[in-house]
Amino acid sequence: MSSRHCCGCQAPVLFRGSADKVNGSASPGITLGHDHNDVSITLNRRSNLKKFMSKTQRTLPTFSNSRTSTFRRTLLAWYDAQKRDLPWRASRDPYRVWLSEIMLQQTRVAAVLEHYREFLRRFPNIEKLAAARESSVLAAWSGLGYYRRARMLHAAAKLLVRQHAGKFPSTAKELLSLPGIGRYTAAAVASIAFGEPLAVVDGNVDRVLERLSGKQLPEQQLWKAANLLLDRNRPGDFNQAMMELGAMVCTPRSPLCLTCPVAERCATRGELTVTPKPPRQKKREIHCALVLHNGDFRTPEFGDGECPKSNKDGRQSEVLLVLRSRTASLMPGMWELPALATSNRNANPLFTLRHSITVTDYIVRVWRTAAPAETRGRWIPIERLSRLPLTGLARKILRKAELL
Length: 404
Ligand code: SF4
Description:
Strand 8 and strand 9 (360-367) form a beta hairpin. The protein has 3 domains: 15-63, no CATH class; 71-265, Orthogonal Bundle (Endonuclease III, domain 1); 282-400, Alpha-Beta Complex (Nucleoside Triphosphate Pyrophosphohydrolase). The chain is of the alpha+beta class. It is built from 13 helices and 10 strands. Helices cover 36% and strands 12% of the residues. The longest helix is centred in the first third of the chain and has 18 residues, at 65-82. The protein starts with a strand and ends with a helix. The strands form 3 sheets. The chain has a 4-stranded mixed β-sheet, with no helix packed on it. Strands 4, 5, 6 and 10 form a 4-stranded antiparallel β-sheet that branches. It has a two-stranded antiparallel sheet with strand order 1-2. The protein binds iron/sulfur cluster. The site of iron/sulfur cluster has 15 residues, from helix 10.
């Protein structure tokens, strides 16, 4: 790699082998130039320049200024024409942007779509969210997983209403002081809702940047590279365009390079060979008891594949659920079905389903059997289930049993 300066301001332009047209090469690799307005680098100060040079020269991918401008224009034109019609893109309301960003963390868009509208129906603004009971917020979040996000969202809403009359801070720096908001979310909300010129780096942007530049980058360099590329006139759209490109075109496996709007400016035009493989999923089998009580029995009395919501007298059934401890590290305060240690190998389960949590794929066998004697559960009327904070797995089982 060699380096030189791009113009009179002495900001460095870095070259990686022959992948830059300033170097006289026709290689498609993009050269990251600098943005003259980029306050994060403050190149007009000698000491910072020195520090910047020593830290980044060996690691930053490089785009020239003209290529960077073309890249921004091309990507934004593609985004304007091709972006998915997602409900959170219809508004720049910070509450809605914030909610979507929190929900989308480590969660598929399809799963968020299902919950986003319902959550907004229940809590249409920050005041309603702040005034809600935590169990109601968790119930609305149920099925999205990572429940700490819901608790933090709720805590931040209460703080904003209590201390700022419900008004959202408009800068990433202020947003960072709220519960549950880290560097990514602060930059996403500030750029999308308020137009602050700050780049974001999530898994999609990370992958796109590494493939564009043809090299793996440590985290700090990724943020620097993203800020160098950022279109400062449309930062929110540009950030979303980078993420959209990663989600729809530059996908983790088999990127669609033939239809990629920025393929001409990509160093790899395909998977980066050094990209680490995703961690292998672990597999586990678990067993749960689905125990119904309809006023006459406290043992299961329904046939295969059949879970009555009421008995022949029309009395509502109840289902036995267990409340997870408030101090549990995972899903505290959520309701779930009683766990069974072992299965009866001579019988058939009521049904079997699959469920994944982070890196573990579960095969879940649901049995119509009495809960273990030591189970400390509670009988919950079926009509109350939809208002309860259920774990994602409990929700899935109860839906499959047509009790929810
Ligand atoms: S889709 Fe292909 S061409 Fe486009 S950025 Fe990704 S790797 Fe490069």
